[in-house]
Amino acid sequence: MSHITSSRLALPVFARWKPLLFLAVVVIGLWVVKWQPYYLKTFLAADTHSIGKSLLANPSEHPLQAAWDYAQVYFLAVWKAAVLGVILGSLVQVLIPRNWLLRTLGQPRFSGTLFGTLLSLPGMMCTCCAAPVAAGLRKSSASVGGTLAFWLGNPILNPATLVFMGFVLGWQFAAIRLVAGLLMVLGIARLVQKMTPDAQVSNVVPLRPKTDNTPFLRRWFRALWTLFWNTIPLYILAVLLLGAARVWLFPHADGLVSNTLFWVVAMAITGCLFVIPTAAEIPIVQTMMLAGMGMAPALALLMTLPAVSVPSLLMLHGALPARSLWLTGALVALSGMLVGGVSLLLL
């Protein structure tokens, strides 16, 4: 009897170190990769009204050279966050109790979507770096709505990006992005949750069964390798292809992107295709507006460019149903068109 009692008392102590370890990795990782660099970058944005050169500036006319040049600049900017994303996406599967996620992010009701949105705010990751974490949450039985809210909320509702945007583009842009972005994240995640067939809502088999006595390190390496193999190769390939296509996707000729409905639609769709690091939409839009782009297409691009991209959608192909991913991309594009269209009428 005493042996059984001591075992029961020891179990919670043993289990408690896992979420504490996960929290420590999250805090240390985000501090090094996101929080401290963005804190320092805020002063740069306030003093110079700029956070750097447009990532799309001076593209090569040759597709292969354009792909290589863009990939170098892009991966140099995101590699730390990408590594952190894969680590967190694997650790969440082995360190966070599954019943915790089922009670929070696992809820198919609005509460799961809301919790995913709130959980995304400290992450401040771009759509591709947040994708491995979203995939890990889904593997641990997070709901479709909760997963999408976390994934979309990271780039769209990034507090640092909103501050940079206010200093660089103007606080009216930041206010529109915040209000429209919150409606986008909650609305799209909730709508996709409702429109995903019941047979596909639970189509992801958790990496680990409920009772898995495999040693922790072996389970973690297995989760890490599976997540890496399912996300990173497609990610790299898609970035190279989009780097080659950037010459045609983003025209920079003076006055070409005028303040018309055609360009609102074009920029909203283009923004859903391309991939950028965190907050890179700000110098891109700043450069294009200086070249003559109207405010309406600028707002459409600000809403869609950070939200989704072809690489990030491909990275989630094994975690979410294809129908949900296609629907998410279409709704993001539609949201950008609506924001730009409203600005044509009111501004």
From TrEMBL:
<feature type="transmembrane region" description="Helical">
    <location>
        <begin position="261"/>
        <end position="280"/>
    </location>
</feature>
<feature type="transmembrane region" description="Helical">
    <location>
        <begin position="325"/>
        <end position="346"/>
    </location>
</feature>
<protein>
    <submittedName>
        <fullName>Putative permease</fullName>
    </submittedName>
</protein>
<keyword id="KW-0472">Membrane</keyword>
<dbReference type="InterPro" id="IPR005524">
    <property type="entry name" value="DUF318"/>
</dbReference>
<feature type="transmembrane region" description="Helical">
    <location>
        <begin position="73"/>
        <end position="96"/>
    </location>
</feature>
<feature type="transmembrane region" description="Helical">
    <location>
        <begin position="116"/>
        <end position="137"/>
    </location>
</feature>
<keyword id="KW-1003">Cell membrane</keyword>
<feature type="transmembrane region" description="Helical">
    <location>
        <begin position="227"/>
        <end position="249"/>
    </location>
</feature>
<keyword id="KW-1133">Transmembrane helix</keyword>
<dbReference type="GO" id="GO:0005886">
    <property type="term" value="C:plasma membrane"/>
</dbReference>
<feature type="transmembrane region" description="Helical">
    <location>
        <begin position="149"/>
        <end position="168"/>
    </location>
</feature>
<keyword id="KW-0812">Transmembrane</keyword>
<comment type="similarity">
    <text>Belongs to the UPF0718 family.</text>
</comment>
<dbReference type="Pfam" id="PF03773">
    <property type="entry name" value="ArsP_1"/>
</dbReference>
<feature type="transmembrane region" description="Helical">
    <location>
        <begin position="174"/>
        <end position="192"/>
    </location>
</feature>
<feature type="transmembrane region" description="Helical">
    <location>
        <begin position="15"/>
        <end position="33"/>
    </location>
</feature>
